[in-house]
């Protein structure tokens, strides 16, 4: 049961909404204008407010601004005569969850009300989870509560207390270095060095000296002895990113350093002994590289004592709202702006997007949106998403091809997705959406009813 406030100067509409919402099991209070409604908001906490836009004394927009100041977590649905009107768009920018036309269908309103209440509950759960993660500071900036991420957290906890080598697998941008840091920070080596090297970002002729150091005079420009990253990491952890790019000749020297915990500097004759934990990461299929003889099998097994696989963002979509909220807060603070919120349609765009660049791409999108956005709400026009990467095509992966797909169902989903996007671009106007989709208004209405848009 939710606590709902109905605000409308039309007594008949107030009574109709009150009866309908009570029948749905909610607790309802009513107000005849925005002024009276704000007075109620000062005395009671509401989960949801449904307000007309056109009202005397204090109209719907002013009420919306007021209720967001009193109770930012209260969800607001506005009722407008024309969904394409500028006031409806203004309401969304001021933080309304959604809007609906006055000649609404009862089932449509029930659906919007339930979605708003579900969203409110989800936001509260996300905020609590986010706070618990930040307070615990156990996993750094790794954010996610999906089943896939819970498995990652469990593995981090298990391997952190051990000394075994770890191989982190996953596509670019999934957060492999964050996992490596979390393992280090939760291990007995916390407080000791955590040293990172990108094995694919340093020229081959310099990589050995970076890893193991060099002696004075060993090559042109070596004017003094220099310790390598293995020595600098002594007692701590060394993170070998993009290990699949390591040249074959250095794979042999790395294997010796792991097995014997000793190495020699370039140009040196004495063994240097170190105590270093190895965490490696790659976005490549190392097992395949072993078969192709481009990666040493013995080194692979030395590194792959425990494997942690980071899921791509498209496989844990339930984490997108949580990550988005985290990045909105982060970059609003960074750029000295009021903390931004994201519109419903903008979130739907993100949820439909396949994110080829994973979490790193989402972070870049939100950073740009906050930096360039002029209002306190992130709108679709603030986004720049790669073309052709929407998730309506992502079901053609190996696993689903093996199990088969329901073509009619998938085509309905694709059609529904396009209609929803057109309605969003036309700010809810069905005639505007019909023009965008190049179909008749009657055809669009039929499709909306058929698909339950």
From TrEMBL:
Pfam families: AAA_lid_14 (PF25601), HTH_8 (PF02954), Response_reg (PF00072), Sigma54_activat (PF00158). Residues 142-371 form the Sigma-54 factor interaction domain. Signal peptide: none annotated. Residues 3-117 form the Response regulatory domain. Keywords: ATP-binding, DNA-binding, Nucleotide-binding, Phosphoprotein, Transcription, Transcription regulation. InterPro entries: AAA+_ATPase, AAA_lid_NorR, CheY-like_superfamily, Homeodomain-like_sf, HTH_Fis, P-loop_NTPase, Sig_transdc_resp-reg_receiver, Sigma_54_int. The modification 4-aspartylphosphate is found at residue 52. GO terms for biological process: phosphorelay signal transduction system; regulation of DNA-templated transcription. This is Fused response regulator of ato opeon, in two-component system with AtoS: response regulator sigma54 interaction protein. GO terms for molecular function: ATP binding; sequence-specific DNA binding. PROSITE patterns: RESPONSE_REGULATORY, SIGMA54_INTERACT_1, SIGMA54_INTERACT_2, SIGMA54_INTERACT_3, SIGMA54_INTERACT_4.
């Amino acid at each position: 049961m939710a606590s709902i406030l109905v605000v409308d100067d039309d007594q008949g509409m107030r009574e109709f909404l009150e009866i309908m919402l009570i029948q749905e099991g909610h607790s309802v209070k009513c107000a005849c204008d925005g002024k009276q409604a704000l007075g109620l908001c000062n005395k009671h906490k509401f989960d949801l407010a449904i307000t007309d836009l056109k009202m005397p004394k204090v109209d719907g927009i002013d009420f919306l601004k007021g209720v967001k100041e009193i109770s930012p977590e209260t969800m607001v649905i506005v009722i407008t005569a024309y969904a394409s009107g500028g006031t409806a768009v203004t309401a969304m920018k001021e933080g309304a969850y959604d809007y609906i036309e006055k000649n609404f269908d009862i089932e449509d309103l029930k659906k919007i009300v339930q979605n708003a209440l579900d969203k409110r509950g989800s936001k509260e759960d996300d905020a609590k989870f986010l706070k618990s993660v930040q307070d615990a500071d156990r996993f750094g900036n790794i954010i996610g509560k999906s089943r896939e991420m819970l498995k990652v957290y469990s593995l981090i906890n298990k391997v952190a207390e051990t000394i075994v080598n770890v191989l982190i697998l996953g596509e670019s941008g999934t957060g492999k270095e964050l996992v490596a840091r979390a393992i280090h920070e939760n291990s007995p080596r916390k407080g000791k060095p955590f040293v990172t090297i990108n094995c694919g970002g340093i020229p081959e002729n310099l990589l050995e000296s970076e890893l193991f150091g060099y002696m004075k005079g060993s090559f042109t420009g070596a004017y003094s002895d220099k310790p390598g990253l293995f020595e600098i990491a002594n007692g701590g952890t060394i993170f070998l990113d993009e290990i699949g790019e390591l040249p074959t000749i250095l794979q042999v020297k790395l294997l010796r350093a792991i097995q014997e915990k000793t190495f020699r500097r370039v140009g040196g004759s004495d063994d240097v002994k170190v105590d270093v934990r190895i965490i490696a990461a790659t976005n490549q299929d190392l097992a395949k590289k072993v078969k192709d003889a481009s990666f040493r099998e013995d080194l692979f097994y030395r590194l792959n004592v425990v494997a942690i696989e980071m899921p791509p963002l498209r496989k844990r979509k339930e984490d997108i709202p949580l990550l988005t909220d985290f990045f909105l807060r982060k970059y609003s603070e960074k750029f000295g702006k009021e903390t931004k919120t994201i519109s419903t349609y903008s979130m739907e765009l993100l949820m439909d997007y396949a994110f080829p660049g994973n979490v790193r791409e989402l972070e870049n999108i939100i950073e740009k949106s906050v930096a360039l956005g002029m209002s306190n709400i992130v709108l679709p026009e603030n986004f720049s998403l790669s073309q052709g990467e929407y998730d309506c095509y992502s079901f053609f992966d190996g696993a689903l091809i093996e199990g088969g797909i329901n073509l009619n169902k998938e085509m309905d989903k694709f059609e529904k997705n396009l209609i929803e996007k057109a309605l969003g671009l036309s700010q809810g106007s069905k005639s505007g959406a019909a023009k965008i989709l190049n179909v008749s208004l009657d055809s669009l209405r039929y499709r909306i009813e058929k698909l339950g848009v």
